[in-house]
Amino acid sequence: MQAQHPSSSDLKDTTEPDHPGMTFKPPRPLLATAVIGAALIGYLVHKTSDARQRLESMACLAQTMGDLSDHDAVVIADLLAKPCTRNTSMGEHHV
Fold first, then answer.
1. DSSP state of 8
2. CA distances (Å), 86 to each of 30, 42, 46, 48, 94, in order?
3. What pLDDT digit, counting tens, does each position of 29-85 carry?
4. Strand, coil or helix: 69
5. DSSP string, 11-41
6. Closest Cα to residue 73, out of 45, 42, 32?
7. pTM value?
8. How wide is the angle at C-alpha 26 spanned by C-alphas 23 and 27, nearest 5°?
């Protein structure tokens, strides 16, 4: 028994985008979460004052705009309340 395949000349069903020509734009809260997540990782990895300031400003802006939940704001505040210490591995020398 052979499988039957539709002819390539048949019309194919397609769906048109709601707004042709528009690219995907994530909702603002998701974008805020991504930016704050990147700033948080940067702070945890680098432990610099610049990274800390970036995290503080991003979190403050997101909270002001209503894109940061109260729970997430508390988590970031608790992290920033801890002293910034950088562990050095063997062989690393910091001046």
1. T
2. 30, 13, 8, 9, 10
3. 888 999 999 999 999 999 999 999 999 999 999 999 999 989 999 999 999 998 876
4. coil
5. PPP----SSTTPPP---HHHHHHHHHHHHHH
6. 32
7. 0.62
8. 130
